[in-house]
Amino acid sequence: MTILATLTAFGCSGQDFGPLQPKPEDLCKCLPFEPDIADYRHIAKHVPIPNEVPQEVSVDTILTWPQDLFIPADAPRTGRELQVFHIANAFLQNAAVNSADCDISMEIS
Length: 109
What we know:
Strand content: 15-25%
Low-confidence stretches: 1-11, 13-19
Largest sheet: 2 strands, parallel
Structural class: alpha+beta
Mean pLDDT: 77
Strand order of the largest sheet: 1-2
Radius of gyration: 15 Å
Helix content: 10-25%
Number of domains: 1
Shape: globular
Number of helices: 3
Number of strands: 4
């Protein structure tokens, strides 16, 4: 949560976090130039966060989770996507903004 708050604070002050985000674009005013249908799993990504107690996990735990081979673009959230997690100790390795759809990607370790 701290990482997300920090990224948002920097982003909303006009910082550039990715090669596709034009300078001095304000992240909070980002306007996607691709239609929603071009954004992979757009409907699944743009839903409220479930109101539940977060489960404590570590980066090591997350790295043991199996990867889905294929998820259709119109698939709703399932499994872990319906849960809320908290990572107490992690480092932000990279943050980037895709100005095509205004998504923020964060890599943690």
